[in-house]
């Protein structure tokens, strides 16, 4: 093979490709770091499965049909469920979304598409501050405003308002971020056709970012669905079915809290059951959103 | 077809409506543009200065020049696309479409772009829309067309863009599923659906392979019988293949782009009057 026609080349006695000491050290270090990262990943994921597994194990005895369909019974009576809390949570979340989604979506669109200069920085900063507010502070504020003043008593409406305040900054941030991911060339393409800007935003930019927007909305609903502190101060909770937004309404986190702080083992099991239901409701919402956004995107 | 055939006093809106209702624009004399002493600024910095030219109707006008000479800035000034995104904040001079200033006091830039369409460097079909919807995106988003009109427009424009045979069986497929060259022709079809008076193309082949480029060039030669086309290209051979007239831009030491020479393509390439043009086309710089 050394003969390549008229030219022939000598094989170098020492291979320049032979491994040296530093190579082995590098290789070891590389494997070590990869191992550490893998362990970190496993720990991160296992926390989720530990919590989920423990909730299921502890909550499973409480789960039966009555748990989803009956109202809570006084201590000592066997059975009963948390149905008013499930319907209450869904009701409050829907109303919170009706208030929070238009505001959050509009604000996110403004930041990504219309805002220029200082005003954008100011809005972004304020939105981050609201996102960083402890939820109990939101609860106290809504309590002072709606429970004490406007409505006059604990109410589902006050709960929905406090949850919408928690949802809005999350929606604003995710909507702005996913809209900025839409390539600028698509906006150019639409504008070059003589499409007005508002129409471009609605018909070109938003559909292109559909999956991201829905994910952001679901994330905000999931986050709000688990909030307890503001609900304790605003909706109070209700052992009975109530669809009246101006009256106290049940909510899963409140029911969970009430069961958990009670001294009865049966109620503790029911608290775990409620935790399981809460996780499931949020999980189902997320899965539905995933399924809805799968397909023609991208 | 001289410029004087166009009646400058005619109300542009009425004229435009008439064109839209005419299925074939063959009956009109074509649309022309007149650029006079145009300068554009990025903030305080002047990017192009003193550009004047007449863009002939039903012909392709090429704009060539090295990088940074302001060709893209200039072509965007022709339909006010510089007002979105690009940092250009001031344009002076005048740009007339069929004798009417597109920078006129009461002129809406959105309206300008309905009559002066644009095709970009990288194919940019709307990924959330089907091929069909991509073609009619412009008319759907600006008015409420009938189903028949939509169907007719899709077939007409895809035919004009030489894409119909390749996609007629998959009009419902996503525009993003096409190859790069097909996507660019889809973008051309999308611009044609607006029945533009003028079609601007900003380096439409720079992201395409030679075969796709050849198809687009053939298409341009076809389209210029009916439309007025302005094409920016960094490829001089492309200019000589498609353009009737060519403008050579060059930025000097001051980085301000100027129009060095403008004339019939043949003459500019074989017998340039300016020594800088000759240096550029013979490859001595740029």
How would you sum up this structure in a few lines?
By secondary structure, chain A is mostly helical. Chain A is built from 12 helices and 2 strands; from the N terminus they run ββαααααααααααα.
**What is the CA-atom radius of gyration of chain A, in angstroms?**
28 Å
Overall pLDDT score of chain A: 89
State the end-to-end distance of chain A.
Answer: 52 Å
Number of contiguous helices of chain B: 11
The level 1 CATH classification of the largest domain in chain A is Mainly Alpha
Helix fraction of chain B by DSSP (H/I, runs of at least 4): 25-40%
**Please, what is the oligomeric state?**
heterodimer
Q: Please state the structural category of chain A.
A: mainly alpha
The share of residues in helices of chain A is over 70%
Strand content of chain A: under 5%
Q: How many helices of chain A? A: 12
The CATH homologous superfamily of the largest domain in chain A is called MetI-like
Major β-sheet profile of chain B: 6 strands, mixed
Element string of chain B (H = helix, E = strand): HEEEHEEHEHHHHEHEHEEHH
Percent of residues in β-strands of chain B: 15-25%
Strand order of the largest sheet of chain A: 1-2
Biggest interface pair, counts: A-B, 25 and 31 residues
Structural class of chain B: alpha/beta
Largest sheet of chain A: 2 strands, antiparallel
Average pLDDT of chain B, rounded to a whole number, is: 87
Number of strands of chain B: 10
